[in-house]
Design brief:
It is a single chain. The chain has 16 helices and 23 strands. By secondary structure, the protein is an alpha/beta fold. The strands form seven sheets. The protein has a seven-stranded mixed sheet, sandwiched between helices. It has a five-stranded parallel sheet with strand order 9-8-7-10-11, with helices on both faces. α8 links the parallel β8 and β9. α4 packs across α8, α5 crosses α6 and α5 runs antiparallel to α8. The N terminus is likely disordered.
């Protein structure tokens, strides 16, 4: 859809109609929408204006058990795992097509629920979700098993098999995309999936489950159980009949997930966790304007609510004044606006709790002596929503809270350096290791830095470049395992060796 066509849509009118018609917040278990067994719900509050838009089922251990038993039955009778690869591919391709066909509905749900600009929900989140499902669908019949180079007296087959029942727990910042990153490879491999979306953004996941069923995914293969993390999430992670759990979220909760896996059936636990990514701009940066645009764009995209946001900006002292001058000139273009306005590029913080957390970090930055040079304040409070101006601190020391802790909001910490080795040392002096970047015209420096930086992805003269063909994940307390690419199949499959003796 072209931009001119998008501008013709009255998103406020559509939102009003959607909410008035009633958004279904019930769980999706065993192929149908159901209330929580307890009959409990929790309110879904839109961060756009602080108003309730739906009631969502508050699932707990009983609902989790129902969903897992349904998933196990579906896996054991092989209604999905037993389908030929071409059949599974056809269903997932139809699923991707339905996502694309319902793009406006899904985008509106995502924006109302989470507060991101409708332009990005429509142009980034929905297409990326459909593309992920489609990419893994296409991979199904293109992955071959192996034959080991044994002696002539044996035939050793090495095959991949689905692990079984996969639990997926995903965060609130990219609800559909993060769900797809788990769901697509797990389903492509033949598993059953129980998805627990964040209680802060459950609506799009529930709709995806309906579309998957419509596409032909068998009943029981995919269930969605909304609820609180300490109730539904912990019950799913502790369940004795879950074979594997894929989690994206905070490092604090990720540590709990790993503990739950050990306390239960030692299920494999794959975690993609927090970040405090370092973005290093050297004085010989080949295009300073591009570096400024990419640094700010990646930092303030999605209101700074991205685990890979380049929130630690290391700028060589010789060019820092010019860099900051250019950055200040661009700050006006990132000011928060109504997310239902097609021109909006920065929306609302997901909820009041996160708003208070972000403002607390800003207060801490001021208290610790960092120089606030832009933003630092809550805006548009009269709307009833939760908005924070894009914020930049200069003269930040590496041990300050704003430079060491993940904020998950639009707060950028600028740190000066004179020597690249020193910048790399400071970049690595973090509990996290998700992404990093270095900007330099010197190929030797670029290679040296990319090898030295302890991060899952290192960008050179760019930031936040992305493709389904490359893995996403981190080092250290940014988690283990990788989403995206063919490497994701390693998380959701077992490797089996079948040894066949030949001859007497």
């Amino acid at each position: 859809m072209s931009n001119s066509e998008n501008q013709k849509i009255d998103w406020h009118a559509r939102a009003h109609a959607l909410v008035n018609a009633g958004i279904d917040g019930r769980a999706f278990i065993d192929g149908r929408r159901v209330d929580a067994i307890s009959q409990l719900c929790f309110p879904c509050i839109s961060p756009i204006d602080g108003k309730q838009i739906a009631q969502v089922a508050r699932c707990d251990a009983a609902d989790i058990d129902l969903a897992v038993r349904s998933a196990r039955a579906a896996f054991d009778d092989r209604r999905w795992a037993g389908k030929a690869p071409a059949q599974r591919k056809k269903v997932l391709l139809q699923f991707a097509d339905l996502i694309a066909q319902h793009k406006e509905e899904l985008a509106l749900l995502e924006t109302l629920d989470m507060g991101k600009p409708i332009r990005y929900s429509l142009r980034v989140d929905v297409p990326s979700t459909a593309n992920c499902i489609r990419w893994y669908a296409e991979a199904i019949d293109k992955i071959y098993d192996e034959i080991a180079p044994t002696s002539e007296q044996a035939l050793a087959l090495i095959t991949r098999e689905p692990v079984g029942v996969v639990a997926a727990i995903v965060p609130w910042n990219y609800p559909m995309i993060m769900a797809a990153w788990k769901l697509a490879p797990a389903l492509a491999a033949g598993n059953s999936v129980v998805l627990k979306p964040s209680e802060k953004s459950s609506l799009s996941a529930l709709r995806l489950a309906e579309l998957a069923l419509e596409a032909g995914l068998p009943v029981g293969v995919f269930s969605v159980v909304p609820g609180m993390g300490h109730e539904a999430g912990s019950a799913l992670a502790l369940h004795m009949d879950v074979d594997c759990i894929g989690f994206t979220g905070s490092t604090r909760v990720g540590k709990m997930i790993v503990q739950y896996a050990g306390q239960s059936n030692l299920k494999r636990a794959w975690t993609e966790l927090g970040g405090k990514s370092a973005n290093i701009v050297c004085a010989d940066c080949p295009d300073l304007d591009a570096a400024v645009r990419a640094s700010l764009g990646a930092m303030f995209f999605n209101q700074g609510e991205s685990c890979n946001a380049p929130s630690r900006l290391f700028v060589e002292a010789a060019i820092k004044p010019l860099f900051l001058e250019k950055a200040q000139a661009l700050m006006a273009s990132f000011q928060p606006d109504d997310p239902l306005n097609e021109a909006c590029v920065m929306g609302a913080i997901v909820d009041e709790i996160q708003l208070k957390s972000v403002m607390g970090y800003i207060d801490a930055g001021v208290a610790e002596g960092a120089k606030l040079i832009s933003g630092g304040n809550q805006v548009a409070s009269e709307s009833g929503g939760y908005y924070v101006a894009p914020t930049v601190f200069d003269q930040v020391l590496p041990n300050m809270k704003i430079a060491s802790e993940e904020i998950f909001g639009p707060v950028l910490a600028v740190i000066s350096f004179d020597d690249l080795d020193d910048a790399i040392r400071l970049a690595n002096a973090s509990a996290f290791g998700l992404q990093a970047a270095v900007w330099t015209a010197d190929l030797n420096k670029a290679i040296k830095a990319s090898r030295a930086l302890r991060a899952g992805t290192v960008h050179v003269n760019s930031y936040d470049e992305d493709d389904m063909t490359v893995p996403f994940g981190g080092y250290k307390q940014s988690g283990n395992g990788r989403d995206k690419s063919l490497h994701a199949f390693d998380k959701y499959t077992e490797i089996k060796t079948t040894w066949i003796k030949i001859g007497a």
